[in-house]
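Thread: quick sanity check before group meeting

JM: Hey all, I'm pulling together slides for Thursday and realized we never actually wrote out the predicted structure for the chain we discussed last week. Dropping the sequence here so it's in one place. If anyone has concerns about the input, flag it before I start.
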Amino acid sequence: MNQGSANRRSAYLTALTQEIERKLQRALNCPSQRVDLLQQLLADIALEIDDRARDIIVSRNEDGIAKAEDRMDNCLCFYEVLADHYVRVPEDGKHILDLIVQLWSQSFVSHIFALLFHKWLFEVPIENTEALLRYGSALVQGARNVFWIDIQTNTRRFLSLFHYLLEEVALVPERSNKISLQARRDLFLLISRFLFFYNLGDFLEIFLQQFPTFPNSFFVGGPADIFVIELTDQLQKLKVEPVLLHYLSHMSALQGLELRMSTSTRLKSCLYSFTSPGGPMYPTRAVRHAAWDILDFLFPPFCSLTDFKLQEARTEHFHEDIRNKKTRRHQNKLCFWTEIMARCGFCVAVAAIQMSFARNPMNQACRLDGTRGMLLAFSSDCFILGVGPHLAGISL
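JM (edit): ok, ran it. Output follows.
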């Protein structure tokens, strides 16, 4: 890029910075118009750069071709260019940052901070430890808010921000360790919720390897469990049909994850809630079919024929005894988790039956439902030992 183009670019970015300062100062001085002014500023910096401005802002080499690192084929927004500018020239963003700090508690301020200073926070040295705590928390909060804007509008306007937080922060310990441990945990939880939305499921394995430690990991499980828990919570909050279908179409990436029984059941229950019409999720027909498809993919509804016949033979004597008992008073006490798996079409087979009728001969009832090859166990003493695509054991 020649000197003339560099000067034009610098002048243009300086003018943008001055305009942002003017609007922030006006918001600070006019409490009655503060929310509207901040909302307008957020909309301005999130705008896509038009062709005329792009010719001025985007760097070009000697052949007149835009450099790859400064060009995005799909969409280039003002916040992306300004974020790079405040890393190269930190002094230009200092006054804006001071105004943002004075407006911390106001709506849309965290959005603006996350968009303009997400690179500055990790690439420019900051000596004030107390300020780092504030900045890290504001970054996660603001990023969450703008990602939800993309969810509600089914767009990817803030993909650049998410991509940076994932590849340049979460996967780079030297940068992620710059913010507090709590902010780092919140950042990983945030990325877990939006990873599939931004089509970056290919990073799932390496992303899980970088997960920070959580104080409740003993109870909820490891990184894979935490990721799935956040994902299921996200799914239950989605109200935009194309976005929900997009999530369900990418959940095949979960295949092969080692999950705790409670996490696996949580995922099944979440997906199952989208398979039935009506409340509480009110899924459309397309969503119901997509939910069934991913359920059948992650948790195959049938075991192999050989395995099923083996388990059926092992339990044949048990069914014969039950048929002779003529007792039904405990059949209504169906184990909740067994019911969930049965309705989802999972083949739940008795892997080992250890029972003594002398101990409690009237408290057992079991039947084999051949509709989809499901074994339903009714007993006040039964509990699930394992779940998933393999045989699950039921202890009686």
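AS: nice. The mean pLDDT is 78. DSSP finds 18 helices and four strands in the chain.
JM: adding both to the slides.
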